[in-house]
Amino acid sequence: MPSTPTASVPCMTTTDAPDSGAHPLFAAALDTLGLGELRAEIRRFPDATRTAAEAAAAIGCELSQICKSLIFAADGVPVLVLMDGASRVDVDRVRQELGAGKVTRAKADVVRETTGYAIGGVPPFGHRTRTRVLADRSLLDHAVVWAAAGTPYTVFPMEPKTLIAHAGATLVDVREQTA
After folding, report:
1. DSSP-based three-state secondary structure for 172
2. Which 8-state DSSP code applies to residue 23?
3. Rounded to the nearest 5 degrees, what angle is found at the Cα of 22, between the Cα atoms of 119 and 78?
4. How far apart are CA 159 and CA 127, in angstroms?
5. Measured in whole angstroms, how far is the alpha carbon of residue 72 from the centre of its chain?
6. pTM exceeds 0.70 for this model
7. 3-state secondary structure string, 38-95?
8. What does the alpha-carbon distance between residue 7 and residue 16 come to, in Å, rounded to a whole number?
9. pLDDT digits (tens, 9 = 90+) for 64-91
């Protein structure tokens, strides 16, 4: 059974000061959602954790406990897909789920314009604009997942069902199937 880190587990490579670096837009979203206390659980790393593997190594958790926030363009309309860090998104399954003709990864400028954040730091909620959100069921395999807090240097822990609810996500099966 994989270990499940909690917010109380110290991270050797982080600064543990309250409000340790969440993006201002994300910090404001936490306050708006009544989650201001979560700001004290945000971990800031001295080096960027732009990939799920880098984040898992820095936190000391399973790769699948990382919640990736990925922006796709479905017929040109941005959509956020929340996926566990060990899996890849099957764009054809996303296309079918949305009833779209074409789904592609969004370009960096579209990601920033849509969310207010740079690739590698996009949180699962607290975006500049409202987008449709799909969350893969694989996130529910853990008691706690870790997601970006608005920068490539910051993450926060949250129970997956709570994270999915705050993201306003629809629970789906959109990960690539392994042979």
Report:
1. strand
2. -
3. 35
4. 20
5. 14
6. yes
7. HHHHCEECCCCCCCHHHHHHHHCCCHHHEEEEEEEEECCEEEEEEEECCCCECHHHHH
8. 10
9. 999 999 999 999 999 999 999 999 999 9
